[in-house]
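Fold this sequence, please.
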Amino acid sequence: MRRKPIIALIYDFDGTLSPGNMQEFGFIQAIGQTPEEFWSKSDGIAKGQDASNILAYMKLMFDEAHANGIRLTREGFKRYGKDIKLFDGVRDWFRLVNEYGERHGVRIEHYINSSGLKEIIEGSPIAREFKHIFAGTFIYDEKGEAEWPGIAVDYTAKTQFLFKIQKGIFSSRDAKRVNESMADENKRIPFTHMIYFGDGDTDVPSMKIVNMFGGNAIAVFNPEDPRKRGVAQKLLRQGRVNFITPAVYTRESRTFRVVCAIIDRIKADNELKLLARYK
């Protein structure tokens, strides 16, 4: 029996599936700050120390939590995730795409590739929809409290995770198998079967790689934010992405039409490759 081709839909989270940064839906309020205050402090740490923006915000979360008597635990992060706001249609999006794939003879898998925190995403209403979540994490002590950054996901790490998805590796720490040579026919999901969704700077290298190797990259933007639309249009002009679309995920949305058309093309290309093997 011929195996169904697998198509991977890979999403950034903040600004892509959610209109805000995940820290803004509970944590920042718990430490008594506004998002503007928190991110200004985080940027100040990164600039002042010439440090990673990702490690800077993780340090600031750690420091502010301790200063306000808040325990940073996995379960605490998951509770923050329950209140994350999502773009219109996101909750039903995965079912819609899965059903379309099933009707058209392909298998759909969804992945997160985020510079945010894995534990917060795991607490979100859509966590169960993903085959795997690649995102930042803390290291936890014997009491279950965060004590040090474990994984900080910048744009370089995001590109590495694409190659892990390609080879079917679901360990963030693996640095051996991901670099081993593998014949194209043995790769679980080729780049041509990837659809990458992103909205900002940390997504650009991943978008470029997916695009360069024959996949499809989509820049989404908050339809209520003209500046975000301008960013998406710039990415399209620069050839970083194949499509742009408002971050609306309903059945009637442009996003759904674009993804369905890409699925149709991937399925057709796969059929043509099989026909070309006739001897």
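The longest helix spans residues 254-276. DSSP finds ten helices and seven strands in the chain.
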